Amino acid sequence: MSEGNQFPVFVSFRIDDPTAAQLAAVSQAAGLKPNAWARASLIKALGSSMKAPAVRRAAANAGRLDAMLDELRAHGRNLNQMTRHANTAGSLVSLGADIKAMLTQTEIVMSRVLDALKVEEDA
Length: 123
Hints:
The protein is mainly α. It has helices spanning about 15-30, 35-45, 55-60, 60-90, 95-115; strands spanning about 55, 120.
């Protein structure tokens, strides 16, 4: 093993289009790039003791995080509209159920965001 590179051996191979589509689908579902998913799967299949480098799920899941943050922004806009309505009506009583439903939805989205931000091992 060279001193400057923890993983000095580079492996590459070709696959057909249907296999590439499957790889893209399963790696995306796992929140990984195709190469990271393939490496983790190979390490696992071989029973290797090699530890793959950690993957920041935040980077791997950037698209999913953007969608979740858009959803949270929408929640903020809805909350602003409810607040404006409550100030006009002078009461939050009529908005109680809406606020409770929004809180539940926001907690679910926040849980998904925090899960996507975890640092996990490839393998």
